[in-house]
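User: Could you check the structure of this?
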Amino acid sequence: MASAGGLLGWQMGRWLGYPVSGGMGGAALAVLGVSIHDTLKGNAVLDWLRNPEGEPPELNGLWGEVAHSIRRLLHLRNGQIADEQARLRQFLSAIQASPNGVMLLDESEHITWISDVAALHFGLNPTRDLQQRVTNLVRQPAFVQYLASGDYRDAVKCPLSNGAGHLQIQVRTYGEGLKLVLSQDITERERADNMRRDFVANVSHEIRTPLTVLSGFIETMGSLPLTEVERERVIGLMAQQAERMQGLVADLLTLAQIEGSPRPPSDRWVEVDKLLARVGADGQALSRGRHDVKVAQRGLQGNALQCQLAGVESEWLSAMGNLVSNAVRYTPEGKPIEISWQASADGGAEFSVKDGGIGIAPEHIPRLTERFYRVDGSRSRETGGTGLGLSIVKHVVQRHGGELRVQSELGKGSTFTLTVPAARVRVKPTEMA
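Assistant: Sure, the predicted structure tokens are below.
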């Protein structure tokens, strides 16, 4: 371009009488034009780089090649960033799915990220509380001291934000002063541990008491001369304590068998009238004529209805029998006991035992199905209860898809009801036909 411009300028300069000056001026103008044109191309590329979302400018020469090379590099970088962001989202989604809480802290203990579970554990907002100092938001003394100690070899236990249980918190360090805070709700685990400890303590106590009595009687019989009447009385009391231990062991075995058994079948049908006849006869035998025991089976309109019940016959007998025996034990002599089977509008049914006993105070009702829980421990032992009957009832009915309901009022008796879902109740095939 300089040569062409110089030649053109020399020709014009020759025509004007200044060939040398014209040649030099023409060459300079040509170079200036090329520079301006090249600068405009560079500015076009720079304008595109300021917002490279669109297509690069269509240019020839070096700047066009540069623009397309940069476009390829940007496309490759954007793909890599998209892949990394997708992996990050997938990783965070996996953390969110964890039942444990995860919180990330920077070197100044400010929250950089928190999962929904951790936010629930600590009572935080996963969006609003980002970049806040964690100790300004979580003020549990045990957690604050643990975080400040720098010794994270062991976990620390703290109350949940709602006060309804406990958390186990573990801190791990990584990077340059960064911290990973892991939280786990251990409320159920602690409750299970407490129940296990209480269970062992209660079983030990329940067995130790009759064993102590038996040991005392055995020592008495071996060291003291007894009359025939005294000997018969001692033997009778020993038999009573032995029977009590046998009943406890039997209930423990029943409970263990129920908890360890597979789900009850839904295609094995039991005659309800036979179940009612069995538990009614057992209740009358236990009562020995001291109560008016009535048994009824009714449909929706109050008419007699022959039904069948799906499940394990022995488990249903155990559950129903426990309710009836409890009613006999805790109902004063002369009071009625009503055993009934009532069809429900949804196709299910209800088995109820209503007694005329002393009733149960409202604060005791939610705990009745706990193992060895007794409203009146001395009275329960006098009546021969083991404290496991209602636990067995609850496990049986829940395994069969139903529930146990208790209605009671002090001085007016109690009603224990087993609800049975429609899938486990049917009218006898002969009746249906």
